[in-house]
Amino acid sequence: MKATKHTITSLVLTGVLLLALLVPTTAVVQQPPVVKNIVLVHGAFVDGSGWKSVYDRLSQKGYHVSIVQEPLTSFTADVAAVKRVLSRMNGPVILVGHSYGGAVITEAGNDPHVAGLVYIAAHAPDAGESEAANGVKYPPAYKSLVKPADGYDYIDPTKFAADFAGGVHEELASFMAYSQMPTADSAFHAIIKNPAWRTKPSWYMVAKADRIINPDLERLYAKRANSHTIEIDGASHSVFITHPREVTSLIIDAATQALNHK
């Protein structure tokens, strides 16, 4: 009897040990894959520095974050700048665009590295559309755009804070106004040929107090792309600066869901 009890006890302990070893392994296997590469694309009149708070938050959570610095000299050059960064990625990418950057990622997002798109108060034109033409159909509130003879537009610095950077700290808004990147007017008239949101999952943030892009146009973009959509009360066009926590959260949603999207 002693030998029998000892044998039974040994078998039970062996079984418990095997279960202890198998359970964590099974749990890891069952976890859905997460995209770890994030590429951030700025809009017109600004540069990539506006993504700093979002970059910091994503980096602290273990994401590999890259920021594209577009030349803003032409739509083609800006798409090429995004693709140049995407070509360096090892694995799938969540591609994020703000404002005019949304039009850029709509074309650049066809790159095979891209698993999902995130639009932050951004343009997402369909095939045959341009953001300029869509802006005529859904007029924005701002009237501060200056269009010089050289073809490079900018926003009147004295009106930049009110129209573009509502909610941004006064000193930062002033710095943005006087360090803005003039943008080729032709870039806004570029016709989209192959919108990536038609074949890839997308997420969209509507800035409800946006004066640069009509919020109703943002809603139209989000609805027809079947984007996972959130709206931010009181947010200006600079929502990527004023609401970094919410922007980061939406990007993480995309990173955790894109590869499992149906």
By DSSP, the count of extended strands is 9
Integer average pLDDT: 92
Biggest sheet strand line-up: 2-1-3-4-8-9
Rg, please? 23 Å
Q: Fill in the CATH topology of the largest domain.
A: Rossmann fold
Class of secondary structure makeup: alpha/beta
Number of domains: 2
* CATH architectural designation of the largest domain: 3-Layer(aba) Sandwich
Low-pLDDT sequence parts: 5-21
Q: N-to-C terminal Cα separation, in Å?
A: 59 Å
H/E topology pattern: HEHEHEHEHEEHHEHEHEHH
- Please describe the biggest sheet, giving its number of strands, its sense, and whether it closes into a barrel: 6 strands, parallel
Oligomer: single chain
Total helices: the number is 11
The CATH fourth-level homologous superfamily of the largest domain: Alpha/Beta hydrolase fold, catalytic domain
CATH class of the largest domain: Alpha Beta
Write up what this structure looks like.
This protein is an alpha/beta fold and 262 residues long. The chain is 44% helix and 17% strand. The protein has helices spanning 2-30, 52-60, 75-86, 100-108, 131-137, 157-163, 170-178, 185-188, 215-224, 239-242, 244-257; strands at 37-41, 64-68, 93-99, 114-122, 145-146, 152-155, 183-184, 202-207, 228-232. Helix 3 crosses helix 4. Mean pLDDT is 92; it is low at 5-21.
Brief synopsis:
With 262 residues, this protein is an alpha/beta fold.
Detail the topology: elements first, then pairings.
Elements lengths: L1 H29 L6 E5 L10 H9 L3 E5 L6 H12 L6 E7 H9 L5 E9 L8 H7 L7 E2 L5 E4 L1 H7 L6 H9 L4 E2 H4 L13 E6 L7 H10 L3 E5 L6 H4 L1 H14 L5
Helix pairs in contact: 2-11, 3-4, 6-7
